[in-house]
Q: What sequence folds into this?
């Protein structure tokens, strides 16, 4: 066997690529808004890990809650039984969620949350006698994780097409990004929202509403470069779904828990989905956790439907894992005690100004922001799409900043505990990295 310190010994799904092998980047320690490499080099976390460490790294309160839970009860099944803390957590989530999103299903990741939400949507349609509604509608440039459900409704072409098989009967709406009309818009783009949402009407007409179960969208697409929807878009989607008996699912794995300066994007946009998926910030990424929140009519429909549909066989060994529930509860205390959602809202203008100060740097073709996150598009190299983005990401890391790369776009989403001078530092380093790769 290879030596334990030999990187070749490991299979790393995200990073088992040739680029990483040539130039490995390792993170060994984290605290607050910083990482340290094994050599002790300090790197400011411009991405809150992978959009997930909203309350900052190494939170003592979460550590203690996990330790206490481990002492009390390490594990309990949530299959045909349960444990009190999962119900307490669900009650706390219900109290902070908008509308009647009052019921929770817990799982272990965003991908599991998405697959679970799609299954719940299909089961609900069957329970009300609409079993012909099996079609699911996603959106181009949407990202919904790596399960078969998620890649099928997702709109990242490689992610969708390279596996050979997908869920049948899925269709996609166009993505929300109209660069020509909306380039360098601050916050929500002004133009095109209603027209874009009306693409759903076209798809409904094509397939017939009686075949469509649900539509899933990220309220603000994250992993494909951060694409805030134009004004009116989500409201219009909600209207169209209501008109045709189609369920609307918001994938809030990134936007949930404060990223937009509100608890959830549903609050920010004042649009309540029928189902909502979350992960990441739910546990501050300490213990893996995901969840699906559903509205009362979904829960009631499943519970009061025919017996054979009600006995849903869906759940994971680690659903509502006690350690995850303990972490999730502790991070809710932090969000509340430190007013982090409000803080995110207050900082978002400063962040917006910082991001847009990078306009005019060589090759920068668009900058977008919403809440405490944003994306910067750069002109790609003709012979090597994505190379500029990758080089910028590598350069930023060398300079001491962690950013996220998607093709020739750089995305950033700092922890919500970030200070203004640290935002200045992030913007300064991002600018230097962009200049260096021009
Ligand atoms: N949905 C969205 C919107 C996401 O951003 C992600 C992860 N980036 C996922 C689903 C998948 O989450 P996970 O990686 O935890 O499976």
A:
């Amino acid at each position: 066997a290879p030596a334990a310190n030999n990187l070749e010994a490991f299979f790393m799904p995200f990073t088992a690529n040739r680029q990483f092998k040539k130039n490995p980047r390792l993170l060994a320690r984290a605290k607050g808004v910083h990482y340290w490499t094994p050599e002790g080099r300090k790197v400011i976390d411009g991405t809150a890990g992978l959009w997930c460490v909203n309350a900052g790294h190494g939170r003592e309160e979460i550590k203690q809650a996990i330790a206490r839970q481990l002492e009390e009860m390490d594990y309990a099944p949530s299959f045909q039984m349960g444990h009190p803390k999962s119900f307490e957590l669900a009650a706390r989530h219900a109290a902070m969620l908008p509308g009647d999103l009052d019921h929770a299903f817990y799982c272990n990741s965003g991908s599991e949350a998405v697959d679970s939400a799609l299954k719940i949507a299909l089961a609900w349609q069957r329970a009300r006698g609409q079993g012909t509604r099996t079609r699911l509608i996603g959106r181009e440039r949407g990202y919904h994780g790596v399960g078969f459900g998620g890649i099928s409704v997702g709109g990242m072409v490689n992610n969708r097409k390279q596996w050979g098989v997908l869920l049948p009967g899925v269709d996609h709406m166009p993505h929300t990004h109209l660069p020509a009309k909306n380039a360098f818009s601050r916050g929500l783009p002004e133009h095109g929202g209603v027209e874009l949402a009306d693409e759903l009407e076209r798809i409904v007409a094509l397939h017939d509403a009686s075949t469509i179960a649900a539509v899933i969208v990220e309220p603000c697409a994250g992993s494909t470069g951060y694409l805030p929807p134009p004004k009116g878009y989500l409201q219009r989607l909600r209207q169209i779904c209501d008109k045709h008996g189609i369920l609307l699912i918001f994938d809030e794995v990134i936007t949930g828990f404060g990223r937009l300066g509100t608890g959830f994007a549903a609050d920010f946009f004042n649009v309540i989905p029928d189902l909502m998926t979350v992960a990441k910030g739910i546990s501050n990424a300490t213990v893996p956790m995901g969840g699906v929140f559903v509205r009362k009519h979904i829960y009631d429909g499943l519970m009061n439907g025919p017996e054979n549909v009600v006995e849903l066989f869906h759940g994971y060994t680690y659903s509502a894992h006690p350690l995850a529930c303990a972490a999730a509860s502790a991070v809710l205390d932090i969000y509340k005690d430190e007013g982090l959602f409000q803080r995110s809202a207050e900082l978002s203008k400063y962040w917006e100004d910082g991001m847009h100060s990078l306009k005019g740097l060589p090759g920068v073709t668009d900058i977008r922001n919403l809440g405490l996150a944003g994306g910067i598009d750069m002109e790609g190299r003709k012979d090597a799409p994505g190379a500029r983005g990758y080089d910028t990401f590598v350069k930023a890391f060398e300079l001491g900043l962690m950013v996220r790369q998607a093709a020739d776009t750089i995305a950033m989403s700092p922890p919500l505990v970030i200070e203004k001078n640290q935002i200045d530092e992030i913007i300064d380093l991002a600018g230097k990295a962009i200049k260096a790769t021009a």
Remarks:
- Residues 7-55+339-436 form a domain with the Aspartate Aminotransferase, domain 1 fold (CATH 3.90.1150.10).
- The mean pLDDT is 94.
